[in-house]
Write a structure and sequence with these properties.
single chain, 166 residues, alpha+beta, two-stranded antiparallel ribbon, 10 strands
């Protein structure tokens, strides 16, 4: 099994239900086990100020499939939930990003790990800090970056990610 992190985001419709529906779908994947979920954060949109606020979270999983296969499963869940990719940073029902995969590093058109913009995005690093309180995840030392960019525009909510047991 390999440790991986999937970041979740939604700013359309019932945002918390969208996040939890995605988590339920991930939990049903035969070779993936959800270990832990972060809190849910409400965050301001980045590069699209006119959009609605986002809900963001992250989950830590054990995966017995390749990074490319895990990414493919996440893209399939997005499509099944109705995500339509129209333009960069467009509003979305669900966004599932494979952030880390057991310290694995790769850079290709289809998949770059660690995710290339993690260290620029407090809305990803704040949930990540809950999964890795030391600020150090496999293959990435993100704590100083989060400290440097700060958490303005990010607020922890009382909403929860519910990890189903199947």
């Amino acid at each position: 099994m390999s440790e991986a992190v999937i970041a979740l985001g939604s700013n359309l419709g019932n945002r918390i239900e969208n996040l939890n529906a995605a988590v339920r779908a991930i939990a049903k994947l035969p070779d993936v086990k959800i270990i832990k979920a972060s809190s849910v954060y409400e965050t301001e949109p980045v590069d699209c100020e006119e959009d609605d606020m986002y809900l963001n979270a992250a989950i830590l999983v054990d995966a017995n499939i390749s990074p490319a296969m895990l990414l493919g499963e996440c893209l399939g869940i997005e499509a099944a939930m109705g995500r339509v990719r129209t333009k960069k940073n467009a509003p979305r029902i669900i966004d599932l990003d494979l952030i880390l995969y057991d310290g694995f590093k790769t850079e290709s058109f289809e998949l770059t790990l660690p995710h290339p913009r993690v260290l620029e995005r407090a809305f990803v690093m704040a949930p990540l800090l809950e999964l890795y309180p030391s600020g150090r995840a496999p293959g990435m030392f993100f704590g100083p970056h989060l400290r440097d960019i700060g958490t303005d525009g990010i607020r922890k909510t009382e909403k929860e990610i519910i990890i189903p047991i199947y």
